[in-house]
Every structure is written in C-alpha cells, then in structure tokens.
Fold this protein.
Amino acid sequence: MGKKSANKKKTSDVRTDARGRGEFSTTGKKKKQSAALTEEQMKKIAQKRKITKALLEKQKSLEKEKKKKKKDKKGGHPAESRLSKKEKAEKKDKRKAEDREKKDKKEQKKKKEMEAIIPASWEKLEGYVPPQLEKVAERVLAHYDLKVKSRVVVATKPLKGGAIWKVTTEKGPYSLKLLHRRPERSLFSIWAQEYLVKKKARVPAFLPAEDGRLYVEMGNKLWIVCEWIESLREATKDLKGAQAICYGLGEFHRLSRGYQPPGEAEYSSRLKRWPDYYEKIITKFGWFRRLGEAYHDTPAGPELLKALAVFEKQAREGLTRLQRSPYARLIARGESYWGLAHQDYGWGNAQIGPGGVWIIDLDGVVFDLPIRDLRKLISSSMDEKWDLQWVKGMISAYHKANPIEPDLYEVFLIDLAMPNEFYQFIKEVVYDPITFLNAQTKNELARMLEREKSKCSVLAELSDWKVGKNECPHDCDGKITGPAGSRRRHSGLYRRGCTNPRPSPPADHPWADGSGPSQTELGREYHL
C-alpha cells in the first residue's frame, strides 16, 4: 500500500515538471511543440482583430443611438429635442396655425352648405320645385358615390318645403328626399327607419353618403337617399285591398317595438298627450261656435252651429271615457313597448310589392299607441256611409298581424268615436271665416251629420264585438254551429272542418315573454 502511494506521487511530480516544459497536456498525453508563426499569419491575425474591434465599436454606437432615440421619444419629438426653445416655439406655432387653417376651411365649407338657399315654401304646381332648390339637390348628390344620369321630381310639399326626386344612376334608381322638419326631429325618423330596416321590415333601405352617414345636412335641413323599389303598386280600393294594408300596418307596428332614438335626435312622443289633444278639440269647438254665431248670416253659419251641437257633446263624452279607461295603464308601459305610429298611413304610403306591403314616407313617425294609425285609416275609408263589414274586416286583418288586447281595443273605440273628421275639416275656419263658411261648406257639414248616423250604428255593434270572433285566422270556410259544450276548439274559434293548430305569438312579439295576456285570455277575449 505504501509502495503504491509512493509510485503515484512520483508520477505526479514527473507530470508537473513536464507541464512546466510544455511536454504534456492536461490529459496526460504528450503535447506537440508549436511551430513559430510566419509574418503572413501574424498579419491575418492582426487584420481579424481590427475587424472585430470595428464591429464592436459599431455595435456600441448603435446601442448608444438606440438609447438616445428612446430617451428622445420619452422627452418629445426627436427633432425638437435638439432644437432651441425659440425654434421649438416657432415650430409649435406653425403647427397650430396649420391646424387652425384646416379647421377654418372645414367650418367654412359646412357654413356654406348650411347657408344654401332652401325656400320654406313655393307655388303649388305639380312636379315643380324652385330652381335654387334644384341646385342644392345637385350639391347634395355630390356627397354620394353615384354617377347621376337624370333627376325627376315625383312629389312635393310646397307649403312645408319638402320634395322627393327619382334619381337614375349607373347603379340603378334611388330616391332623394328633402325632409322639411327640423334636423333634430328628422334624425328621430331616420334612425327609426334604419331600425326597421335591421328588423327586416318592408321599408326602403338608406344609401349612406361618402362620409358614412345616413343623411346629408344642407340648408339647415336633412336630405336622405334611399333605394327605389320599381315594382310597388297601390292596393285596390276595395275591402281586400283595405285588409292588405291593415295587415301591413300591423306588421309595421309590431316590428317597430323596442326602438330607442339616439341622444342627438329629438325625442318625439305623443303617447301621453291624448287627454291634451281631446281638450284642445273641445276648446277649439268653443272658438268655432263663437265664429258661427258671429257669422250667422253666412251660408254655412247656421249649419256649423247645428253640427257643433252634435260633435261638441261627443268630444266631451270622449274625454270623460278616456279618463275612465285603461289608457293610463297602457301608456305606463312606455314608448319602447308600444313602438311607432306612422301618422300618415294610407293607400299612398302603403304599397304592394315584393313579399307584401311596403311602407314609405316615414319622416313623420312618432311614439304613440299605434292603434291610432288604424283609427285614422278606418275613418278616412268611410266616405258616404260607415260600413260595419268593412270596419270589422279592417280591424281583423290588423289583429292577425299585431293582436289587439281588450284594454287597447276599448281605447281604440273611444278614439274612433271622437269627431276627428269634423275637427280636421272645420279647423281652417279661423283663418278666413267669411270665405270658408260658404255654400260648399254647408253641403259638406250636412253630409257629415248624415254620415254620423251610420257611424253611431257601427260603433254600437263594435262595442259588443270581440275582435276576430267571426274571423278564422286560417281563412277556413267552416261555420259556428252547435251549443258551446259541443263545439270543437280551434284557436279560440269553433270552426267545423278546420284542423289548423292554435297559433302562438311570434318570437319577436312583446307577448312572447309572457308580459301580455295569457293564452287562455287570448282565446276567450280575442277568439284568435
């Protein structure tokens, strides 16, 4: 053991001595003696070292520049950081002046557009608008990506200052419309129409301007461009046509529910104004009575007093009935629940087209109990005499598209009984009583009083009628027969030969969430 250790020590000393002389490597193997470097090799080594040094210096320079840029970015514009305070101030002032100039140009352009001369009214001639309005229309169309081939006036509102053009372009026909209302009020109807387009209602879609907006503001009025639907035609002036546009009205009302105007638009609602409107009618009837007494010697003076004796009583009764009705409970649901009323719905603004009834001219839409549109449509359809079957048919057609709950039907009958047609006709008397109270007005008032007899008879029948009771929603020809206990149930009707299932409210209908009457109540009250 001691001998082995001594040998190991001896070997270690030999290796140590050899390393000092360079004879052995660290692994214990004998190392070759290195040869002397030639001059050429030394030059190459020096050159490599020089290149390496240059690369390192370049790297340091780049890193230093990068740090400087980073510092400049934090402190401000890199160019400005090297400028004097005076130069910085001058450059800042120059930039401000440029921004101010751009802003001024933009404001001048907007002011020029706002100052475009748009006449408030003009002479009532078919197809005529003033030349200056045609020039403004041309400037409006320049805001759209359209190559206009022709432009023709198709409708005007000369007393209010509105007009519609049919514009033929390379992309097809469009309508250009000047909205005569205040811009804020027009925004309400524009966004309402866009809401209905998104809900897949049959209303014309907008063509956005080049700036992406749905309108152009010029002359302190809003202008819109919409698609032009060539295949539209008026519904027939018979009961079938009346039912078609009533169904279309119901669809429009149902799809308008949920609309909320943007903050920039004027909030337009008549939902809570029914009592005020009734009171206004009563107040003005007092004015008309005094005019009738003052101009008793005119041809229509005595007839006016005779008519007021009937219609003023109706108006007072209507206000009392409204105050006792479910009206307050209905309007408490809010505007969004009830949706929009068109206000000018009729054969002209409800046209038959692809898929059903298309509704146009929506610039007067407003929040209201939508049933008022139906009341106006029915009243305007009764000419010489009120027809019970026509009225029932129109109500039933509307009811199929937008069910009428009992409380709403009660309020509808109150509004239908009001002397609305008489008021709309006679209110012009205040402007020129002598001219207005002529023989023609006398004949019209006599005709209204005679027509009122048939209206009272129809209203009496409607008060005992349940909406849709005698109308099968599937248009089957079955008859109601047998005692109640033996009748077969069919959607609230008892029709022999009809096996169609009972319909449910559409998915987008407010009653679908259970907020409306129950299915049992629907069957009992609506028979639908």
Q: What stands out?
A: The first helix runs from residue 2 to 21. The first strand starts at residue 148 and ends at 157. The mean pLDDT is 82.
